[in-house]
Amino acid sequence: MAVQSIYLAGGCFWGTQKFFDQFDGVVGTQVGYANGATAEPSYREVCAGSGHAETVRIDFDEEQISLEQLLDYYFIVIDPTAYHRQGPDTGIQYRTGIYYTDPALLPRLEKRYAAEQEKYRRELETELLPLENFYPAEEYHQKYLEKNPGGYCHIPEKYMHLND
After folding, report:
1. How far is CA 9 from CA 85, 95, 98, 151, 164, in A?
2. Cα 160 to Cα 16: distance, rounded to the nearest angstrom
3. Mean confidence (pLDDT) of the chain
4. For residues 58 and 34, what is the distance between their CA atoms, to the nearest angstrom?
5. Which CATH architecture has domain 3-161?
6. Taking a C-beta distance cutoff of 8 angstroms, is the pair 162, 22 a contact?
7. Computed from CA positions of residues 16, 154, 76, 147, in that sequence, does the dihedral angle turn out positive or negative?
8. Nearest Cα to 105, choosing from 18, 2, 19?
9. Neighbour-count burial for 43-73, b at 16+ CB within 10 Å, e otherwise
10. Which position has the higher pLDDT, 152 or 74?
């Protein structure tokens, strides 16, 4: 098994985590705060504008699910043209972003990003950047929608069962 990681910011991380947890080949996920200016931010600090994005680290086995498949799914559940907003959630922490730690993935990421850009007349607002930092969110945020069925999620329910 060749496990790789990609970091995806897709608005509120509760739903983004639950969405990706459904796919075979996703071997682990963790919600956290990425690419902000301060170390070890709290949820309160992130909500107050620390500059971090609510992000999900996705560990995946590329023998079961490709990076491109993950990005295809990602673009289904975000509006890549929205600036600092997804669904009703607004603020810098709800921006969209694709963050990577392995520069060898960049050509593949750029190719998939360019294909998505072709679908829109205006520039995508989704960031495509190296991961600068990632701080795991507090434990109560991890698998939040599993712990709190019926909790808030900006991703439509119909997308939570694509792998059924």
Report:
1. 11, 7, 6, 19, 24
2. 10
3. 96
4. 13
5. 2-Layer Sandwich (3.30)
6. yes
7. positive
8. 2
9. bebbeeebbbbbbbbbebeeeebebeebbeb
10. 74
The beta strand positions in the chain, using DSSP E, are 3-10, 26-34, 53-61, 85-86, 89-90, 96-100, 127-130, 134-136
- Contacts by 40-48 with C-beta closer than 8 Å and gap 24+? 40/135, 41/135, 42/138, 43/137, 43/138, 43/141, 46/93, 47/91, 47/93
Confirm if 67 and 107 have CB atoms less than 8 A apart.
no
Q: Which one-letter amino acid corresponds to residue 52? A: H
Q: State the Cα–Cα distance between residues 75 and 78, nearest whole angstrom.
A: 5
Q: Kindly give, in sequence order, each residue whose CB lies less than 8 Å from that of residue 78, ignoring residues fewer than 6 positions away.
A: 10, 11, 86, 96, 126
* H or E stretch at 110: helix 106-117
Instruction: Give pLDDT tens digits for 101-129.
Output: 999 999 999 999 999 999 999 999 999 99
Is 12 a known active-site residue? yes
Q: How many CB atoms lie within 10 A of CB 82?
A: 18
Q: Which helix (H) or strand (E) holds 1?
A: none
Answer yes or no: pTM beyond 0.90.
yes
Out of 12, 78, 82, 98, pick the active-site residue: 12
Cα(154)–Cα(151) distance, rounded to whole angstroms?
A: 10
Instruction: Report which DSSP code applies to 164.
Output: -
